[in-house]
Amino acid sequence: MATANSSNILSSTFYLTGIPGYEEFHHWISIPFCLLYLVGIMGNCTILHIVWTDPRLHQPMYYFLAMLSLTDMGMSLPTMISLFRVLWSISREIQFNTCVVQMFFIHTFSFTESSVLLAMALDRYVAICQPLRYATILTPTLITKIGIVALLRSALPVIPNVARLAFFPFCHSHTLSHSYCLHQDMIHLACADTKFNIIYGMVLITLLWGMDSLGIFVSYVFILHSVLKISSQEGRFKALNTCASHICAVLILYVPMIGLSIVHRFAKHSSPIVHIFMAHIYLLVPPVLNPIIYSVKTKQIRQGILNLLFPLRISSCVM
After folding, report:
1. Alpha-carbon distance values, 181 to 102, 243, 280 (Å)
2. DSSP assignment, residue 188?
3. What is the pTM of this model?
């Protein structure tokens, strides 16, 4: 009985991995990670606060920006606790149920962020190509529906792959290759036929990210077509400048994602540090850089941050 019980306990416990070969430096390595998480959380919370409290920012563009901030935090926060538990030598253990929940949130919000970027591309298309109908097309009701559909569209397809893990025996090593749980990492440890999970996962990524990226590309084709019709060079530059932050956000998400996919597919035998480094870039760079880019490139957000930091000085200048 004792052996059976210990076997069951062992089968539901997995072990996370920090930075292999640098275990003695984990406490020092945690410092830059801590700073990155702090910058990401503060930046996204600041944008959410500014959009929420400033009535002038109650417009479609800023509602979508608030959605982007929420998905950024949803993608990075589930990994934070497990990462610091490993780096601070608290515990490498993670229970199967916790691992599945963490995995679900990571993959769901990764897909949701791509959907939000598609919605933001639609916003830029309407603003530039249909400026007179902008407010009537992108109503608050429609924006709310887009947000709900983006979340459901991302969450529901993830459930079958995640749910099937509960029926897999894990008789190999229970050591994961990251400091958090990923679906592609766990199925490598399963002692069962995982073809469905592999094929379903590839189809899901191709459909969701493929459709989103295609939609973004088509939107910008129409945007570019409309911009080229503008007679003045200054007008064309101004129109394109409104898209600069969104283009950067798209690159920030898709470039690390493509890089991580290439590493997983074609560099399987490379150093584990390469895989870990790319995975952390994919999950940490968008939440950290998106608020910075939108703060620098968007005058209204920049002004909101200044009002938040120096309320008395700004009000005295206005007086």
Report:
1. 6, 34, 12
2. G
3. 0.89
